[in-house]
């Protein structure tokens, strides 16, 4: 005991029923835990019995040893939670030994455990109408997290950070039940930024009168990114990679360059996008804006059952198409005429799994086609644009690229990078399971739609989820007007939804990946019902592409993004991470580099397509693609599969190429045919496999 007495720097007293809990601490650590019983004497309260705790047992000691401890202590503290009667008794006892004590605010949880933990207004955390220390509050939060599921490190860190910030345990645990308190759910804010760029007046552009007049009617000056692009040669044939946030006006750069070249006889314009929904919208926009000065057609590909889209006219001045649609035209030998400008929107698609290598191949094949076509045109004086066409201009557009300089170099394009964000975006995180999400989405949609911006527009919402079925499920549960929107809807129905949203008749649309690629819905709010697309977690790039849909400068004062996160949630057993882990990875992550990677199937598919389009020049096409293709190995596999004979595609090879089949899919079909399977059963099998992937 004497050794412990010598180490005393704080003696802490806390009322425990009729007794007193005694804690002796040194340097913040407890060195003795005991219970003191008091007795009433004619001189006042005095120590009657001291029991020192030893593990689960108690060892009796002389009450005089308490007095010895108290006299050796550098300071004596009485817990604020001790009753007025208890404080009076303790003060009277200590006064008898000429000892002073101070009443301090302490953590009751610690005090009940015999631990002295003083708290201040800066450290006290409210819990069940009383204040406790941060350590105990974090322990209580951990218990709550264990009850709700295995919330992972990043989510725990965020909740603990919030707990210490707001100093209210109940408010934090309410987040786990879907509380929408914006002060708590707010993760951060992406500030609005304005880069200083001198705007280019539209009357100084010196374009063909057909488009010059239209631009002057619409705008006095160009937007900053448009001005940058024009100052660096966009309307003079310069190839460019334009990287700028959503809603900063990238599309008009391609329009100015392409329509001007069409009207000046320098070849037609191709405007290529990744999705049918986006192609349909761009086609309608081009028809409305430029249909009186150029012919516009649509090329969205050929299905595996039916024929070409009947709106496609290869002789049109402007072809709006999907990547696969135009690639299909090349693979089947269609004459697209002389191409003056190619605009590839969402070029970051080069980094995606299946679609990435196909876009890489398309660019190489299209460049080959343009070279050959111009050579032929220049040999025939009668061909339009034969002498003044020059090289095809390439403009690549994206809002999300991590390795901008590297990608621009690989594409052989000048980089135009503009980092302005027209409106700020608030990003929020809250926790909910699948059923709770529906209720939260309903509340968020209502809250947004019932609010008008300073520009007079209601708040409207895009809800992203991971399947078409969930789109319909969520839309049905929303009380305000809403509609599902995905690639499974026909064009007429999608157009109706787009018009209703534009007219502010819909409070929300619920969609899969289709809108992320840029379909023009002026939403103020984006909600992530899921952080997966299908069975794959979103990439940082996809995430930024989607959240960038929130907030438009002409409509809203700010954008709002909500991530509804299911602790320990996953959508397929192949997903190694959980949704709460993914949420903070996405929020804190850096944009991925755009790189095209080839597995064996992809290498074989693109090499075959290059052979079909370019014959003996296929190796040259392979060599100039962004991703590295093991050409020799791929040709060996094509020979083994009997897709080619020599370097000539076989009938089987042409069929496989025409329908964008991987070798795996091709052999699945062949196997089913040999077994006498019904054609519709084969298609169903392919569709099922595609959805599973």
Automatic annotation (TrEMBL):
Provide the alphabetized UniProt keywords: ATP-binding, Helicase, Hydrolase, Nucleotide-binding
Report the InterPro entries cross-referenced here: DEAD/DEAH_box_helicase_dom (IPR011545), Hel308_SKI2-like (IPR050474), Helicase_ATP-bd (IPR014001), Helicase_C-like (IPR001650), P-loop_NTPase (IPR027417)
The UniProt entry, under PROSITE patterns, shows: HELICASE_ATP_BIND_1 (PS51192), HELICASE_CTER (PS51194)
Listed Pfam families: DEAD (PF00270), Helicase_C (PF00271)
Q: Where is the Helicase ATP-binding domain?
A: 231-419
What GO annotations for molecular function exist for this entry? ATP binding; catalytic activity, acting on DNA; helicase activity; hydrolase activity; nucleic acid binding
What are the residue boundaries of the Helicase C-terminal domain, all occurrences included? 439-595
Name the record gives this protein = DEAD/DEAH box helicase
Lineage, uppermost ranks? Archaea, Methanobacteriati, Methanobacteriota, Stenosarchaea group, Halobacteria
